[in-house]
Amino acid sequence: MADQDTKAPEAAAVTTSAAELVPVATPEAPASTAPPLAGTAAPSGDVPAEKPAGKTDERAPVPTPAPAAAEAPNALEAKSAEKTEALAPEPAAAPAPAASKEAEPKTAEIGVPVAPAPAPAASAPLKDLWTTAQAHTHKEIWGVSLTDPETHVPSQIILQKYLNANDGDLAKAKDQLTKTLDWRAKTKPLELLEKKHNKEKFSGLGYVTTYTTDTGSKAKEVFTWNIYGSVKSMDDTFGKLEDFINWRVALMELAVHDLSISTATERITAEQDPYKIYQVHDYKSISFLRQAPAVKAASKETITVLAANYPELLKEKFFINVPVVMGFMYAVMKLFVAPNTLKKFHPMSNGGALAEEFSASELPGLGEKLPKEYGGQGPELSKLGKQTPLEE
User: Fold this and answer.
1) Which of 1-5, 79-83, 150-154, 232-236 shows the lowest mean pLDDT across its residues?
2) Whole-angstrom distance, CA of residue 389 vs CA of residue 194
3) Are 79 and 203 within one domain?
4) Among candidate residues 73, 99, 125, the one where a domain is terminated
5) What pLDDT digit, counting tens, does each position of 185-223 carry?
6) For bias kind Basic and acidic residues, which ranges apply (predicted)?
7) Which of 99, 133, 149 is the last residue of a domain?
8) What is the structure's pLDDT at 297?
9) Residue 319, domain member (yes or no)
10) Which domain holds residue 311?
């Protein structure tokens, strides 16, 4: 009841190796004292030397004149030496100082940079919740066997509701989900839905109604009705707390079943969620409720159980025919229900005006479909409403 959805950095651009900008040296050429051009890096301890005569390089320092021809034994010998020098293999330039390994881009054999492996992506919250559910021995909630939310819409809806109920706080959502699975494993709500409850205690006390359009649209609204004025004996109905809670849980399961979550095909978000229920509590003739400790205990436990195990299922809640002395109910709710949920609570002293509250409903004519007792034109609850199974 408590209401509560990196890219790996791009590879660095291809850069020219610093070694490619260093002028190469030849063994025979005399050393030059000219400094290297800006932007070039000389091997450690060496100064770039000039090119052999006859070769020029825009990036090299101004060449020193070659030795005079007269110094050679004869012109032919000089030309031969020059030719030999020109054809001699040039030694590879010494590598430039290595850049930091962290900054150096990795390159493939063909020279194309290789992007670094992407960092592991953070797990999506729903995936984490699914992992939590997988680790539990009980994997059913509201009649749905939980499975991968990426491929199973009903599971996505349920897990998203737990996330929404906790305002996106994953740790809290995991904790609530785990506790719900614990509770369902112990309580077995689906069995309570099939169980026949005490007719004397609970007949006429709770109903579920579902209203649809006349056009064949899938749109529908589900209501649960708690008619506390039908209580025959306060001690019998509320005296044994476990019996009352089991019956109330069965009524909630009946309403959730009518939402058809198990066959849903549309996912929900934090903002868009049509899978919710209207709740109506009729306190007509229950002015003495304030003085009944058993009723207080039942109310408190009901709020606690439904808030913990049926999150984000409440659309709006109407307290009708409410006497002034019922103020304690709201004090209890403030302790167990989120502030955003409290905004959905509407106390009304006149139950006959309930239909007017639905004049702006997305379901056309919803108010008119309600029972006449509540301002509509529809049949009374005893004829239209569904009850939990009751003993004969």
Assistant:
1) 1-5
2) 7
3) no
4) 99
5) 999 999 999 999 999 999 999 999 999 988 777 889 999
6) 48-60
7) 99
8) 92
9) yes
10) 186-384
